Amino acid sequence: MSEAGRGPELPIGIVTVSDRASRGLYADRGGPAIAAYLARVLVTPWRPERRLVPDERPLIAEVLRELADDLRCPLVLVTGGTGPAPRDVTPEATADVCERLLPGFGEAMRAASLTEVPTAILSRQVAGTRGTTLIVDLPGKPSAIATCLDAIFAAVPYCIDLIGGPRLDTDPSVCKAFRPAA
Ligand SMILES: Nc1ncnc2c1ncn2[C@@H]1O[C@H](COP(=O)(O)OP(=O)(O)OP(=O)(O)O)[C@@H](O)[C@H]1O
Ligand SMILES: Nc1nc2c(c(=O)[nH]1)N[C@H]1C(S)=C(S)[C@@H](COP(=O)(O)O)O[C@H]1N2
Predict the structure, then answer these.
(1) First to last CA, the chain
(2) Superfamily of domain 10-162, CATH level 4
(3) Alpha carbon of 138 to ligand 2 centroid (Å)
(4) Which residues contact 165 (CB under 8 A, 6 or more apart)?
(5) Which of 43, 93, 107, 141 could form a disulfide with 61 if both were Cys (CB 3.0 to 4.6 A apart)?
(6) Structure pTM?
(7) Splitting the chain (182 residues) into consecutive groups of 10 residues, what average pLDDT does each group show?
(8) Does the beta carbon of 21 sit less than 6 angstroms from any atom of ligand 1?
């Protein structure tokens, strides 16, 4: 067991933002899709810290702070609530808690999604850092998750190195993490 008594694996935050899934009106398929992606791509031992919250800015921000500050997740992936509808507030909540935004993540994910659906431009998804945590928004459609993560994951381990987080290693047959030569 680690110091925190929660096991040696790195905690990774998986947050689904959905009014209906959080009320039990449909089963959450976004969180499981993220977990399945991480299970394929990461060789570093990790464990999911799953959260399911309604589209409420303060609640989303509170969960992101908990995962970053209390659980010290190096990576938090958030799905849902990134669009232009009035209740879509995930990008605002992410920006509320991040110290710095990384616009390249959103740009790359929208560009990849745009090869699949013209409505990709409707996602306002952002990414940013809070302490040693990288937070990345993903669209709510479960099918968007692999598309978006494929577009960015090669840069995720080095980003976490640069902010002082733990080393994450990927299975190179799934995603070759890029770390510039020293
Ligand atoms: N977590 C999820 N699990 C399963 N399907 C989802 C999930 N999130 C979104 N979807 C599907 O993608 C569609 C668009 O997602 P979006 O995030 O815009 O949902 P929404 O219309 O805002 O509703 P809600 O917040 O209640 O999920 C949804 O109508 C639903 O069919
Ligand atoms: N890859 C991918 N990206 C996508 C989509 C999709 O189906 N696949 N849906 C788009 C749509 S229709 C919307 S409204 C926005 C925001 O979705 P969200 O509010 O569920 O996060 O994501 C967009 N990005």
Answers:
(1) 33
(2) MoaB/Mog-like domain (3.40.980.10)
(3) 8
(4) 74, 75, 132, 133, 134
(5) 93
(6) 0.95
(7) 60 98 97 98 98 98 98 98 98 98 98 98 98 99 98 98 98 96 80
(8) yes
Locate the DSSP E strands across 39-179: 46-53, 75-79, 100-101, 127-130, 133-138
pLDDT score, position 182: 74
Q: Whose CA is nearest to atom 5 of ligand 1?
A: 29
Smallest CA separation from ligand 1 atom 28, residue: 141
Ligand 2 contact via 82 beta carbon (within 6 Å) = yes
Q: Whose CA is nearest to atom 9 of ligand 2?
A: 120
88 CB near ligand 2 (under 6 Å): yes
Atom 6 (ligand 2) nearest CA: 144
Give residue-wise pLDDT tens across range 24-37: 999 999 999 999 99
Round to whole Å and give the CA distance between 179 and 82. 29
Q: Whose CA is nearest to atom 25 of ligand 1?
A: 18
> Which atom of ligand 1 is nearest the CA belonging to 55?
25
Checking ipTM against 0.90, whether it exceeds it is yes
**Tens digit of each residue's pLDDT (9 = 90 or more) over 52-86:** 999 999 999 999 999 999 999 999 999 999 999 99
Question: Which residues does residue 79 pair with via DSSP β-bridges, in sequence order?
Answer: 16, 138
Which run of H or E residues covers position 19?
helix 19-22
Q: CA 25, 84, 88 angle in degrees (round to 5)?
A: 45
